[in-house]
Amino acid sequence: MKYLKILAKGAVIGVGMIIPGISGGTLAVLLGIYEELITRISNLRKDFKESIKFLLPLFLGMLLAFVAMFFPLHFALKHIPFELCMIFVALMVCSTPKIGMDAYHSGFKKWDILFAVIAFGVCLGICFIPTGENLKLDLHMPWYMYSSLFLVGILVSVALVVPGISGSMLLMILGLYEPLLNTIKNLIQTPLDAFVILLIFGVGLIIGFFTIAKLMKHLLNRYEHQTMWSIFGFVIASIIVLCYKFDYKNLLTPLHIGIGCGCFVLVSGCFMGIVYWFKKRKRNKELEEAI
């Protein structure tokens, strides 16, 4: 049961990786596994067995969800972007108070507000960087594009680890979001081109992921409350970024707005109902143990 929960949480992160504006790190924070994720990655050599028990189902869930939901979500982004956006906004808004309380309980000083504001500004600022022109990715591209693709993988890994920064949004800024999506789509038609491109990008992603995770572990150990308040600033800003980066085009009609608002209310209600049920269950269990 424990591993199924980790698998499910990995699946949520995998779905978020496809959507511009959603940060894998933010979802890990919202799901309550961020600190454990950073710890397991940092202690992979020291405590390999326990770390792999956590990381394997998590990454498997991410991969399965990414593959299973790639085309449905790509379709939804084109046809019902506002409704999809409202579902994720509802989940993030409902989860934000807990992140704020976690930051407060980690410690609070006047200067911590500055860390939250700076993080908020950085996350929001990235959102307004002009999007680059789409680049062509194939085996006939210039030699420097191969090394650039590797470096981009490292850069995007920051978004997987640092809450609030969206990897797909960074790819859009660099002009590689659509080209990489097309590469995934062309895995059957041009398997060699697609495999080489995704392999180079993936190696950079993995190297960067483990490196940045160790850095975040150091920051959480050495500067816990400053890091927690920075994460809080990132998460708040990511809600605004999510709404801004969705491409609504001509689909923001009264009908779409009505359905989107309905999705927001429904998801928020379900989320709060589940939280209430878990709290009540936990309280009853504590009372039974006390008796």
Descriptive report:
- There is one protein chain.
- By secondary structure, this protein is mainly α.
- It has one domain (2-290).
- It has helices spanning 2-16, 24-30, 34-42, 48-79, 81-106, 110-127, 143-161, 167-173, 177-185, 191-222, 224-245, 254-290.
- Helix 1 (2-16) packs across helix 4.
- The longest helix has 37 residues, at 254-290.
- The chain is globular and about 70 Å long.
Question: What is the topology?
Answer:
Blueprint (H helix, E strand, L loop, with lengths): L1 H15 L7 H7 L3 H9 L5 H32 L1 H26 L3 H18 L15 H19 L5 H7 L3 H9 L5 H32 L1 H22 L8 H37 L1
Helix pairs in contact: 1-2, 1-4, 3-4, 3-10, 5-11, 5-12, 6-11, 7-8, 7-10, 10-11
What's the number of helices? Answer: 12
Strand content: under 5%
Which class of secondary structure composition applies to the elements? mainly alpha
Distance between the termini: 27 Å
Q: Summarize the helix and strand pattern as letters.
A: HHHHHHHHHHHH
Tell me about the biggest sheet? none
Spans of at least 5 consecutive residues whose pLDDT stays below 50 are: none
Q: Indicate the overall shape.
A: globular
Gyration radius (Cα, Å) is 20 Å
Helix % is over 70%
- Strand count: 0
The whole-number mean of residue pLDDT values reads 80
The number of distinct structural domains comes to 1
